[in-house]
Amino acid sequence: MTRIVVTVMPREGVLDPQGQTVHGALERLGFDGVGDVRIGRRIELELEGSNPEEAAREMCRRLLANPLIEDFDIQVEGT
Hints:
Elements: E1 2-10, H1 17-28, E2 41-47, H2 52-64, E3 70-78
């Protein structure tokens, strides 16, 4: 089994209402100097097969990420 970690984030320039909400809350709590805040998600997969990274990439293209508004990054953590 190969462990794959997928990080899905909003594309640059795409409105991120969760990030804006968290940014505002941090400012209200007194945290100065916070720049842009973006909220994404982490997906951990354990995959079998000869090319688990490509399988994960196809999963992202077809289901795990919305290609119109999100980018994804794939990290292979181990076998």
